[in-house]
Amino acid sequence: MATRLHDLAIHTRNLLDCDQACLCLYGPEPARHHPLLALFSAMQKSAIPCYGSSLDLSRERIQALCTLALRSGRSINRGDLLPGVSLAIGSIAVAVLERPAGVLGFLLCVSREPGAFQLGECRLLVQYLPELAQRVEQVLSDNCTIEA
Description:
The chain is an alpha+beta fold. Helix content is 43%, strand content 20%. It has a five-stranded antiparallel β-sheet with strand order 2-1-5-4-3, with helices on both faces. Strand 4 and strand 5 form a beta hairpin. Helix 1 runs antiparallel to helix 4. The longest helix has 25 residues.
C-alpha cells in the first residue's frame, strides 16, 4: 500500500514538474471523512500518514494548510503561508482529495520557485485531482477491508 501511494505522489510531482509532492491521508474535520479514511486512520501509528516526498513541515503546519484548503473549498496556491520554514519553499499548492463518500486527504506540492503553480499547473491539477482521489480510494479500499 505504501509503495502504491508513494508512486501516486511521485507521478503527481512529475506531472506538475515540482520539487516535492506528498499525499497526506488526514482530515481535520471527522464529519467529512471518507469511511475508508476512518478505517485507515485506525490502522496507522502516525498522526498524519504522508506518502511521497518527505516534507520538512511540522505536523501543525500541515494541519493548518489542510484545514485552510478544506474550509476554503479550493486549492491553495501560496508561497507566504510558511514563515520560518528552514526548507527553501517558493510556492506551495494544497488540494483536497475528495470523493462522493468524503475527504480522503490532501495533496501537498512544493516548489523552490516563487509562483511555480501558475494557471496552467492549477488547471492540470484540477483536471487530475478526481483521478488521483479515485486511485487513492482504490488503494485504501484494497487495503482497509474489514475481515469478518
